[in-house]
Every structure is written in structure tokens, then in C-alpha cells.
Specification:
- There is one protein chain.
- By secondary structure, the chain is mainly alpha-helical.
- The protein contains four helices and no strands.
- The longest helix is centred in the middle third of the chain and has 18 residues.
- It is globular, with a radius of gyration of 16 Å.
Length: about 120
């Protein structure tokens, strides 16, 4: 008798970080929005913030911001404020990502993540 292996949530999530990074780097607004919305939904759950995921979450947020800045023609080397591109269609999905994370910011306790 064969026993099916139940997928480990951490392993499954780890496999999704790469594809999500690629999708959030996309200049296609529909694709960016779809994956930003999926990620925001996942980030709304406190279980998403396990230690191995936190650096990946920050990486995904940085990629989403870089994509927004690139598409909104905002200088990536200057201070970013949403008012610089408030009407851009990527603002809403990016804001949703930040709103999902802000409720869990206290989970980012590792000193090496400060200032990222």
C-alpha cells in the first residue's frame, strides 16, 4: 500500500517564492496585479511570517516596489513616496501588499532585516 506524502506548507511556499518574484517583476500590469493580490492575501495571514519566509517576503516587496518605480518612471535612487505616482495602476496592488504586511511588522525581529 502506498501512502501519499502530504505536502509541507513551508516547502510548498519555498517553491512559490521564485515564480512570485518573476511575476512581480513583470511590467504587465494585469500579471503584476494578479500576483500582488495573491501575495497580499497570503500575507494577511500571520502564519505566513515564519522565520525562513521573512527574508523572502522582504525580497518580494522590494521587487514589487522596483517594478512600480520602473513603470511609473520614478527614480529608484531617490526617496519614494506614493504621491509621485498616485494614479498609476500598480499603486493599488502595491498598497495592498504594504497594508497586509504592516499588521505583522512586529514579526520582523531579525536585526539583519532592519533597514531593508
Amino acid at each position: 500500500m502506498s501512502v501519499a506524502k502530504v505536502p509541507n506548507a513551508v516547502e510548498t511556499n519555498h517553491k512559490l517564492f521564485g515564480p512570485y518574484a518573476r511575476k512581480l517583476a513583470s511590467d504587465d500590469i494585469v500579471e503584476y496585479t494578479a500576483f500582488a493580490d495573491k501575495l497580499a492575501k497570503w500575507l494577511a495571514d500571520g502564519r505566513a511570517y515564519y522565520p525562513a519566509a521573512r527574508p523572502q517576503i522582504l525580497k518580494l516587496l522590494k521587487i514589487a516596489l522596483a517594478t512600480l518605480q520602473r513603470n511609473a518612471w520614478v527614480d529608484r535612487d531617490s526617496y519614494f513616496h506614493i504621491s509621485k505616482c498616485v494614479n498609476h495602476p500598480m499603486i493599488s496592488p502595491y498598497s495592498n501588499l504594504l497594508n497586509s504586511v504592516k499588521d505583522h511588522k512586529e514579526r520582523f525581529v531579525e536585526p539583519e532585516m532592519f533597514g531593508l
